[in-house]
Every structure is written in C-alpha cells, then in structure tokens.
User: Fold this.
Amino acid sequence: MDQPPDPALLVERWRSGDETAGRELIDVLYPIVVRIVRLHLPRRDDEADLTQEVLMKTFSRLHQFQGTAPLTHWVSRIALTTCLDRLRAQKVRPEVRWSDLTPPEAELFDTTWLEGKTAGPEKAIVARDLVERMLAVLPPADRSLILLVDLEGFSLEEVSQRTGWSLSKIKMRLFRIRGQLRRQVQNWGERA
Amino acid sequence: MNTREDDIWKSLLTQSAPSFAGDLTPPLGLAARILAGAREERVKEAAWERIGLRAILASLAAVVVMTVVTVANVHRDDVDVPVRGFAALEEMQVS
Assistant:
C-alpha cells in the first residue's frame, strides 16, 4: 500500500517550484480543511467558497511555514480563524423558541427527549439543523469551541494548541456554554 | 456532573455527526484554481521584489552621488580658503 506523502516534504518541493507537489498538497489538505469548514460554518453558508478561500490563504502563506508545528495544525488554525472571521458577521440570536423549529426538528427532539431514542443516519441532517439552532444562541468562538470538544473529541490542551486560547479561558467558556445549552434543552423539553 | 440536558445535547450531536463528515477528494478544478492563484501571487511578489530592489539601488545611487558632490564641494572650499584669506587681508584695515 502507498504511504501517504509527508506534507512537510511536499511543502519543500512546492517552494522549490514543483507544481505536482502543490497538487498533492491540496489532496492532503482538502479533507482536513473541508471538515473544519463544515464543522464551524452553519450548514446553509457556502462551504465550497470558504474551503477555497482557506486553501488560497494557506498557499499564499506557505513560505511563512516554519515547520515547528505539524502542517495540519498550522492549516487547521488558518481554517478556524477564517471561519470565525466569517461567522463574526452573523448575528447571535438571544434565544430559539420551540415555535422556530420545523416539524421534523420538533419530532426528532421529542423522540430524543421523551423516549431517549437515537435516530438513524437518515436523520443526520435534521439532527444537524437542530444542533445548529442550539448553537445559534452562542457567539462564533463558543460555537467552535463546543464542537471541537464535544464532536471532534479534542482535549482542552489540543484545543489550546489549535486556537491559541489559554486553558483557563477555554474552561471558563465551556462552563458558560454548557449552561446555555442546558437552558436551551430545558426550555424545549418543558414545552415538549 | 452530567445532567439529562447534557445527555440530550450529546445525543443530538451524535445523531448529527454523519452530516459533518467531509469529502475526501477536492472537486474538479479546485486544485487548478488554487495553484493558478498561487502562481499569480508569486509573480506579483516577484514584481514587487524587483520594484523594491530597484528603489533600493536608486536610493543607493543617490546617496553615492550626494556623497561625491559633498566631498567635491568640501575640497573646493579647502582650495578657496587661502583665496578668501587674501580677500580678507585686503579688506583688513591696518591701523
């Protein structure tokens, strides 16, 4: 089986003018970038545009890459900050009411809340829309933080490395975010 | 401590997880667009570097010219000193 190419070597080759290395680098970085963009951008925003923007930024800054951290971490940071910049323009909603939910979202919430059941992958998009609604009450950085921890399963140290935030700041934010999410679920649950 | 609300949040997140899975291969044309953009940027950077280098060389040349002119003037002033000295002598009133 072919070994995946070493990204650091690809960067070296790209810097020395090897176009093929550039293509290989895009193949390596694309899944990482698109995953981050999908994770941090609300579903209805233009994912393809932002992915391209992140990769463009990466290539234009590639000469600054020192190699002190793994390339994937470096690129993840560019992707994350680009997503947060984009999200900053969006308004944070004070609350999402039960009446804001679509019937499939309300049904999925009821099934989870009342019956404790988990829907199959066919309901993944509805579940995601519901998650997006819950996240809509959070500022962009908080939204990203909770997804990095709860969905990606990163440790607080890893989040700190990827975002540049201090551990105490992360802990404090997580505490506040969990409180907000709890209140949101409680409001919907008490109605249900 | 996990509350029921925390469990519901986690459950909804787990159910949504498949929708977050990204594509593994870039769409057709993306690599070409990015590489073309990077090439264009390199060309621009090289052009700016050339302009910068020329500006530095021009400044350096100006400094050299200024230095030569100044040194030449200083030497001329040195030659003028005795002449000015004679002129001053003529104007001097001897009591």
In short: The two ends of chain B are 111 Å apart (CA to CA). DSSP finds two helices and no strands in chain B. The helical segments of chain B are 4-20, 30-91. Chain B touches chain A through 31 residues (CB under 8 Å).
